[in-house]
Amino acid sequence: MDILFTLRHLIKAGHRNGHGVHSPNIFQFYEQAIFSKEEFDYSNAEESLKLFKQSNETINVTSAGAKGDGSKHPRKVADIAKSSSSYGKYGRLLQRIAHYLHPDHILELGTSLGIGTLYMASGSPLSLVTTVEACPETSKTAERNFRRVGIDNIIPKVSNFDDIIETLIAPGRFGLIYVDGNHTYDATLRYYDIINKAAQGGDCVAIFDDINWSRGMSKAWDEICKRPDTIVAIETMRMGIVFFNKKLTKNIYVTRF
To answer: Could you give all domains of the chain from N- to C-terminal order, each with its CATH number?
Structure first.
């Protein structure tokens, strides 16, 4: 975590619960997604995470992403679960956003053990959730759990992001895209450009995770906020949410979450 970015965020963050948000559409998003008081059932994801943390299984993990070199090494499933980014309030936020948007198709880049996948698939059960993971063994572990839970609206794919993203993200196909992998400056901006091209100024919403993970990520997020096709950007400390809909009023919001 970049401490300087965190301090900057806390200084900039000037509102909670939508206070200071003047756009009716974005205020509604704050009220019904970010800070929704509606009761949700988060058990599919959270019971799965609990079981993974108790697992004695070891799998061969293929190293990919920001620190990956393609090598394989054994790793305990419990250790992977303990470092899962999609848990707690941010995992629950994913479920509420998916529920609020209820798009036909959702894309996740970075399945890991599928906890974030389960949050989104549970939040919008009529959506088809495509999730991409670079490590075959990790993807198999997640897929077995999807079957155990009984979730049938998830399509797992095994691939490096760069090998599949341009053919996968067709114009207008995905209403929600969650990027949770390959957390580097260059990769993040490359994925943004591909998503933006496919969004075509429409209803697509993109979520970038770990925007304060490193200085490179915080720099990438700053640049995303400045891009002319970023109509609305919402910064929630760890996640950055981007709206491409040109019907919205252009603005950047920094919120305490």
So the answer is: 41-254 (3.40.50.150)
